Model the fold of this input.
Amino acid sequence: MAASGGRASSAPLLGRDNEPTIFELSRPGRASWQLPTTGLPETPLADLVPAEHRRGAPVGIAEVSERDLVGHFTRLSHRQYSVDLGAYPLGSCTMKYNPKVCDAVAGLPGLAGVHPAAPAPLVQGWLATLVALEEALCEIAGMAAATLQPAAGAAGELTGLLLMRAYDEARGERRRRVIIPDSAHGTNPASVTLGGYETTTVRSDERGLVDLEALRAVLDTDVAGMMLTNPNTLGLFEEDIAQIASAVHEVGGLMYYDGANLNAILGVVRPGDMGFDIVHLNLHKTFATPHGGGGPGAGPVAVAPHLAEFLPGPRPVRLPGEGAEVRYGWQTPRRSIGRVHGWHGNALVLARALAYIEVHGGDGLHRVAERAVLNANWIRKRLSSTFDVAFDRPCMHEVVFSAAALHRRTGSSAFDVAKGLIEEGFHPPTVAFPLIVDDALMVEPTETESYETLVALAEGLERVAARAHEGTLEGAPRTTPVRRVDEARAARTLVPTFDAVGKQK
Amino acid sequence: MAASGGRASSAPLLGRDNEPTIFELSRPGRASWQLPTTGLPETPLADLVPAEHRRGAPVGIAEVSERDLVGHFTRLSHRQYSVDLGAYPLGSCTMKYNPKVCDAVAGLPGLAGVHPAAPAPLVQGWLATLVALEEALCEIAGMAAATLQPAAGAAGELTGLLLMRAYDEARGERRRRVIIPDSAHGTNPASVTLGGYETTTVRSDERGLVDLEALRAVLDTDVAGMMLTNPNTLGLFEEDIAQIASAVHEVGGLMYYDGANLNAILGVVRPGDMGFDIVHLNLHKTFATPHGGGGPGAGPVAVAPHLAEFLPGPRPVRLPGEGAEVRYGWQTPRRSIGRVHGWHGNALVLARALAYIEVHGGDGLHRVAERAVLNANWIRKRLSSTFDVAFDRPCMHEVVFSAAALHRRTGSSAFDVAKGLIEEGFHPPTVAFPLIVDDALMVEPTETESYETLVALAEGLERVAARAHEGTLEGAPRTTPVRRVDEARAARTLVPTFDAVGKQK
Amino acid sequence: MPDYLPHTGEDLADMLGFLGLSSLEELFASVPAALRLAAGLGLPEGVPEPDVLARASARGAANAAAGLVCFAGAGAYDHEVPPVVRALAGRSEFVTAYTPYQPEVAQGGLQAIFEFQTMVSRLYGLPIANASLYDGASALVEAVNLGTGSTGRDGVVVSAGVHPHWRSALRTFAAGTGHRVLEAPLVEGVTDWSALEAEGEVGVVVAAYPNYLGCLEDLGPARRLADERGALLAIAADPVGAAIVRSPADWGADVAVGEGQPFGTALSFGGPYLGLFCCAASHVRRLPGRLVGETLDADGRLAYVTTLRAREQDIRREKATSNVCTNQTLMALTAAVQLGWLGTAGLAEVATRCACGARYCRDAMLRLDGVEPLTGSTPTLREFALHLPIPADLAIERLADEGYLAGVALDALVGEDGDGSLGADSASHGLLVAVTERRTKDEIDGLVAALGKAVR
Amino acid sequence: MPDYLPHTGEDLADMLGFLGLSSLEELFASVPAALRLAAGLGLPEGVPEPDVLARASARGAANAAAGLVCFAGAGAYDHEVPPVVRALAGRSEFVTAYTPYQPEVAQGGLQAIFEFQTMVSRLYGLPIANASLYDGASALVEAVNLGTGSTGRDGVVVSAGVHPHWRSALRTFAAGTGHRVLEAPLVEGVTDWSALEAEGEVGVVVAAYPNYLGCLEDLGPARRLADERGALLAIAADPVGAAIVRSPADWGADVAVGEGQPFGTALSFGGPYLGLFCCAASHVRRLPGRLVGETLDADGRLAYVTTLRAREQDIRREKATSNVCTNQTLMALTAAVQLGWLGTAGLAEVATRCACGARYCRDAMLRLDGVEPLTGSTPTLREFALHLPIPADLAIERLADEGYLAGVALDALVGEDGDGSLGADSASHGLLVAVTERRTKDEIDGLVAALGKAVR
Ligand SMILES: Cc1ncc(COP(=O)(O)O)c(C=O)c1O
Ligand SMILES: Cc1ncc(COP(=O)(O)O)c(C=O)c1O
Done:
């Protein structure tokens, strides 16, 4: 078998010194800025800003040469793991390869250089982009209409909950509860609260799926809806989804699909067809827009026809009219809940996602799902003798192992396994989530990792487990820029800025 | 003093494994190419290429996914030191900061997307660029005309020698010798040979300068010219340059200026004013076009008026004509030696250099020289008690130390010092050049390194020297992706391609 | 045509064999057959990358706005972003990393965000800054949540000088949180807080500085109102202006928010941008979003890590201070690079040049017949509002033909959101003009001349 | 306005103080006063980066050629370069490194070049490939130097099918080396070697494949001529064509050279490109330029290093095999990335698509009245030469107005260099048309239609 391509074997160029902060590199009088020549007469600051508004002292930022600026951030980049360096099997995060062509799309001056308040006739290309993406996402989700405004999954969730609320209010109702399963992502309950609802948690059964009986027990006409991820965060498909949906619909509730991780079902099954009314999609997961170290993302929300009139506005639309040339404009839905973003959403992220969809097409997206599920199942089976599979049945795009038994036997937890895997050249899986699995290790290989990489990853985890048994895992990682960091100390002795350094005891 | 910005303190992210070759990552059937849809009918290969010309088997390159391609080269980049990671005080190489604005210039579609054979009316912007650069370089060098064709310094040297030859032949002469000092760069004698001349080496005196008497002794009418670097490769200004030039001119020879390193004299003194007839300039040194790991560069050659008619052609020129609008075209000098490049030279490198010159202006270039010389002298003085300064007098842009005494006392050579400095977070100085200094350590800080970086570099070298005395230097570097490599083995057991792996004993 | 999937036919066979399956289809056995998409997605077939890029270029070419000289602002500004900033912020290690859940392999990104937090904190004068929120609007919403949460009062008094879209978002989210949002109107560009004095409990007072019409208001009254009502003061401050005007902290803000787009992020048709969020130390446990802190590693070496995580949704779930998870880290890192490039002097220079250009432009425009100030003599900084003799959208249309994006029609800005802070006539004839440091004298002169023609 | 110099006033004072100097001026004491430039350089003052970028953009905009659909070739081709290749080859670690003099900190670049060498060797079928030369022309010159050096014979027989500019460069450098360069003429696109059979000693025979008129010649006669004269055979081979036609090694070449621009390097107005150079193992000690080899480090770990350095100028000085020092490493690395992206199948696909498009284009053009083949029925690959009823430069001018760069006028190509390989009429009416995989049917149809109109 060929060598693994997804294993980062980067090596140190030099010493292990920390990189100083830019503030330590700073020296009064040094600078790197250069601004265009404008030919404008200079007006003294005192004439521009009345004394009562003027700042006392300049804001001290940092004073570095361009050369030092470049050295600083280039060196920092060498202290940062990334998909481009190696596999990143973080469960629930879908860290797949981000095609570089999408960077090129996002860098096009015709897209990146457009002011968001320019009138519609001057931004026809952007409107066409947004409409095309909205249509594609609706087809993928099996929905009727969408808003592209939400900037991330959590923003999408809250938008969806506000749509639920608007829908209820339009019906003259005021329901108070939203049901979520105990395996749900933390953003779900947090969004429920911000949506003005109370969370009712429904437990998973021994299959790792929503317990239908438990669900029925909490359903009544005070339930505005249910939020569900399917496949759920255990990577399992909720087989009873049809029954779940009709049970919720029966009491007049809406079904909300947390589509952060749509990867497994692309072209296989659609939330709309499963009975969902509202869906959000994380473009920074399924649609390969890079995660940027924590963002930006985009969390469009698609809805069934009966919710379209509540969508945030203004929405990009194809204008009615005759003739061959399509014209686009903005339209605010009749009973819109209002804006959920300062402008139109994370437009450049949206443009990337459209490019990704266009390259793949319907057929390619289906292949994505197949390969993602194949990879996850291969890992599941391969590692099932090394770790316990939390719920040992075929999974979808990800699989949750439990290191609880290992922990009991060896004292090494899932957390230790994660740190050990770093030394093997891989980013660790997600640990401690979902909460319902003890010592969870949640592996999502994604479809872009090769068979060789999966083998190497599995071998790495096997070696780590062996080290746990040998008792040599403690203290890992040793090969990283810093070793295990003291998280408790960070919270205890808060140093949130360079200016706070030394001020804390 | 603030922390040093030019010190690479990058640290390992992961293990120290080697990166497999792309051939090892390859797997039959995997691919990453995507080509545009053309709508053309497909013609079978057999109909396109007659059997007697057809290749038997496809060329096996490698078969990798785009994801693995990205991982591979990104990881390789983490195994490569560069200016952007830290100081690079390689003497004679002028590894200064390369402004990113020049990358932007070189990436402009209007420049990068132009075919070199497009007719002059369609490439007016390029011709304007080349003419502007030629004029600026002539001003900087004190010369009358230039060719931008030579792709690097060595190509410039050979061009210059062919100009000498053409000049001689036009005078009906056939001189056979070219004089170079013993401190000259290796390309000088190599170019002399290719120019059809014999090298006469003249020794340096105890000042590190050309020995005027020794020079006079070898001058006669068989001498076509003399090649000189000034400041020479010891970083010293040839104070007798006026006498040297007139002595050479007296016998009818031409003076050739090896202007690879013009950094020290920008706006201070010009080769033309020193009496030189021909100059080449390394744009990849003085004019900050990045070195690319070994190229590309550009080595334009500027000449005094009497040599202009021999320059390679075609040359970009401003066309005579009335009206406000300037038009440009091509012109081949009357007695041109012919082409020295397949097209017009390394055009995008030339465009970068022009941008660099425009940002700096005449005043800025002069500041470059001042700072470069200041930095070198500071290092010279600071380290003069740690190493012997080869010729202890004020230097120009670089300084040559000798580790010979250290070597004798401790057994650690200049080479060992270099390897030790790597562990300190710096790229080492040039070693073993110039040849006339034993255990040479040639330091060229360049003007873009800060005072703090110089201090850190000096401290690093001091620590290395201390380690030499302690006897702990051996075996350095230990912190690099690989440790000291066996150069002898590479030559003895030649493995020049992956296909040769294992075939050698 | 290849795609991004590495599986060869042999790989597929091997892997399926290992799983005891005979087709990829069987992987989806747990999906009820009745729900399966029989015919596949109704999307076109995939097309190769170069075609997709060409298509995107064509769409870009259909955005006439991209080619215009930009005098539009209203929270999104055409500032200089040098190639060096783009090169550094675009390094793939930063772009393709996830949230730093494993700090040992994420020191690069963490340190950059620590530096970002420090810069934002210095700019706004408050000691705590988070790692970014989605945009200015969402930062404002979070500031209000913090204020109401901390005071236990659900009344929110917002100056109508806060960006109309932000106020719209505030109203949208108030439907969930149940906040009562009260707007204090603008008079000649200055908030009239007195109009609201009679109404119920107030948890937070929100002012803007400069406000969306470009005016620098005295925020003393806002602070006093907050004090009287036991409310927090949140200030939405233009981060570029902050370089030369009083900081939110100088005005006594408890929370400061802003739109960080001016720091290195392209206009991008409105996103991704980044919300800046700063607060007093006493509110740190209510801080929304991620916070990077300094700590030590096992060897006692300095290290960075996300901290006070117990506020966040993944740990606190329904009790979290906010639901934010993915934020705008890459834009925050970009802002740190851009601010590092500008430095102390460059930042002040940018702010001064903007104000300088705006003054020149405003003076010239006010010399045109029929063009009047919309905000009286209230001082403005880099943006100003005019009353035109013709509808502003018409003026914008005419000036686009001359190569200028002349500004933002106030109507368009407030209209969609049903904002009543401006009278109908002021809105439809109101033009908001912004001048950044990129605008040259020739461009401004050209714009003014074209405007003169257009309004004639 | 800041520049790239980090020295603060305090730094300057401290450093000068340390040196015992009171001004920067004094640093130049060793430069005789009489020679000093009193008034400074006669160059304009420096201008800020954004202005310089704007100026360069304006110059770019003045290159009408950049906007045309490109059918020009003649050694420089408009091939697909995907964003991924640009992103990887543009990584600053590769761009801002020096020649790998310290292999311990240059393994990244060294390994990439090792991979490049392997790919070039596989393409041309010869076991040794160097790390690049300046361009195709310089690679040819070096091949001739190797051939004459190795045989000790100074006669060089070159097919007139070798690119005219390369032959021009060969003549230029022959003035120094003293080589006698003899050209074997083309007849209907095929070299007539017989014309030269009578002349003196021959050290190297040079053929091109396909030749610059696009023709695939039988190189058997070239190999036989070389054998008869005890000369080496050097073949200048199109590296894209090499994917589908016989390799230089298949034809018995001792040395193979080529222009590597088609592998990932933009048209770039002719440079920087890269010379490909390959030879038989027996010539390795005469190899010009750098060579990367595999070795071990002190721990026995695999490592890469430049090797056989004793051939090079810095060690061998006047006895070096070549004077080359700086080469085109970054372009070589780019080629390795591009070839890695294309892979085995993609490379063949590109070559096939070029040939396919060229065939389609040629057939269509030959259907136009008065347009005739210039090379009879000799097979061509991705480029072909036509005889037009009007001067080729006129046709190119007319087609530029229609949006096409129709090809290269043979006159322009050979004229400047006084090449006599084509008759005056063939040259002035000769048009060389290249079709790459980027050219669509619509573009070709458009070009043909426009040509039809232009020659009418
Ligand atoms: C299942 C699930 N739901 C919701 C989210 C929240 O999405 P975001 O981080 O974009 O707000 C995530 C991502 O972290 C997720 O994995
Ligand atoms: C003094 C000197 N001369 C000539 C050269 C040769 O220049 P190039 O490497 O561009 O051929 C160099 C650079 O290495 C040099 O330092």
Summary: The longest strand of chain D covers residues 204-209. The longest helix of chain D spans residues 329-366.
